[in-house]
Task: structure prediction
Amino acid sequence: MAGLRVLLAASEVVGFAKTGGLADVTGALPRALARQRHLAAVVMPLYAAVRRSGRPVERTGIVLPVPMGDRVLACRVYRSHLPNTDVPVFLIEHQPFFERDNPALGRGLYQQSGPGGDKVDYWDNGERFVFFSRAVMELVPHLGFTPDVIHANDWQTGLVPVYLRELYRQHPGYQRMRTVFTIHNIAYQGSYPRELMNLTGLPGWLYNPGQLEHYGFNFLKAGVVFADAVTTVSPTYAREVQTAEYGYGLEGVLANVSGKLSGIVNGCDYEHWNPAHDRLLAATYTPETVFEKKPLCKADLQRRFHLPEDPNAPVLGVVARLVNQKGIDLIMSAAPGFLDLGCQLVVLGDGDREYHDQLQYFRDRNPDRVGIYLGFNETLAHAIEAGSDLFLMPSRYEPCGLNQMYSLKYGTPPVVRTTGGLADTVVNATLENLADGRATGFSFNDYTASALYETVKWALVLYRDRPADFRQVVRTAMAQDWSWDRSAEAYVKLYQRVLGG
Result:
């Protein structure tokens, strides 16, 4: 099959606006597709964050009419490119919906800070992303090419497959188009009152238990039911979301469409995350120089967090959203034990107030053993990946995860729970896997602080008493290929399958 034409629709893209891993995927996958000679483009909302990003953005002169119930709202279309590429990024402007984010005022892309500091969703998120999904469909004739596939991502674009099948299929240029829908995190579904259906232009009879209804009008379910193919961001997560433990109420729906459901592990952007040429590090290194140069990164990390520069104290690193999903409760419960084992702990993240308070209290009691940074800092994120001896990622669930892949590349063995993408990307350092030369990190099954503690304890046995084994784990980890080119090849095969190729 000749080169494919793919439009990725998403609510955030790295370099323009980002809250999580979705943005990394939608920034990296189209680059990889373009490298493989496919035509890719991206469409996203024009947030205030985009204007603050410094990315060059220009008007196209395109004004789209977007039906919303008994109204038609106009939106301008702007255009940019993914950094250092020719991949176009189309930006949907509608200031009342999208240009409200302002970190100084506690306003993000989807949420704002409440009176107590907790994050609450914007009251009109449903309306905002009905508008965005409809605008994506109206944009298609103005792209300069006709997409073979529209690749929608997460609940914010869950209506795109519905619109194509129910309202646009017979329009010129739309007939052969197919849709792929990717679930990056099933916990976020976009569920709203039935009355929101009135704004969509979709026939009311679609609101039934087999299609759009699931405790309300459910955008994620819409994407799952109507897309030609559904993916999650790892094979293990694709299996997990079909179970009651991980399916967040949609496990039956996903089990019913298992024939079109698959998992593709996200790639790692090795242009940005590579210790061989990472300008944010105190020292760059390769697999050949890791044991010579990594200690320089460790000392730099200790200085940055005002910890004693002790080369013999194992540094445990954490870069995560400070929320229940990420296993922060396990880390906090096990942390006193880590200090008793002679470790230092450094944490970078932002999230729930309770974890902010717990970390601050723990750091105040152990200022020479614990360092924290509440918020996000790109330089510190790289410093932690390179300077830590072990990276902690004991997630309750993890659709794919990126930090464990960064850790592998940086020779910082990750300590993970065997869930989702963590299970697919980290090979546990059992005696058998060590003997076979396959081990790349450390993992455990039970979601308990004691399981995390015992796993770290075993890792430290290798670190201190069996350094040859630990070094082998480091080298094997750094040799892994979780590049986006690898992932893009899997997506291309999927696109070809839905197109009948």
